[in-house]
């Protein structure tokens, strides 16, 4: 009888098949890699990683596989406050820890913030000085992703 364990792909290997990524979109230190749960315009998000799955744990696993593939071992995580955002952060931190990826910085923006609040909070400068690989995931309560993108442009991060 053949052992299923020896030839079965790991969760990371299975998850890696779902990655869609353009090799020209490598993230130089002046760019931010963006991960969104919903589709968006490739011309706006040139370094976008797209996944075609819905479960937060699966998205976290795919993201960890992507980061591990490029031998990145430190990332920053940006999200909003709130219960659903907290659940996502826990799922991502668990997947990252299992793959030897360190979350060096975690920044949470209040859901009520606008673009100017984000820039004036000093967090953008902190992102610039401490982080190179950044995972951005906002819940869909508001379109904070586009506000954050505008804030990165205003702060000179993109």
From TrEMBL:
Keywords assigned: Membrane, Transmembrane, Transmembrane helix
Gene3D superfamilies reported for this sequence: 3.40.50.2300
Entry-linked Pfam families: ANF_receptor (PF01094)
* Signal peptide positions (record): none
Q: Which residues form the Receptor ligand binding region domain?
A: 40-153
Is Transmembrane helix tagged as a keyword? yes
Its annotated compartments are: Membrane
Please provide, in alphabetical order, the Gene Ontology terms of the cellular component aspect for this entry.
membrane
Q: What is this protein called?
A: Receptor ligand binding region domain-containing protein
Q: Which organism is it from?
A: Pristionchus mayeri
Starting at the broadest rank, the lineage of the source organism is: Eukaryota, Metazoa, Ecdysozoa, Nematoda, Chromadorea
């Amino acid at each position: 009888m053949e052992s299923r364990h020896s030839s079965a792909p790991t969760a990371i290997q299975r998850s890696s098949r779902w990655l869609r990524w353009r090799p020209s979109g490598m993230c130089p230190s002046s760019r931010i890699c963006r991960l969104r749960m919903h589709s968006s315009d490739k011309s706006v998000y040139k370094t976008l990683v797209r996944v075609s799955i819905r479960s937060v744990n699966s998205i976290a696993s795919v993201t960890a596989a992507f980061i591990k593939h490029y031998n990145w071992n430190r990332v920053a995580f940006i999200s909003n406050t709130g219960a659903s955002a907290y659940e996502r952060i826990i799922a991502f931190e668990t997947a990252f820890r299992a793959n030897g990826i360190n979350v060096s910085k975690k920044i949470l923006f209040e859901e009520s913030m606008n673009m100017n609040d984000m820039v004036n909070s000093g967090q953008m400068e902190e992102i610039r000085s401490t982080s190179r690989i950044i995972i951005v995931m906002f819940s869909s309560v508001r379109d904070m992703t586009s506000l954050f993108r505008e804030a990165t442009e205003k702060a000179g991060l993109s």
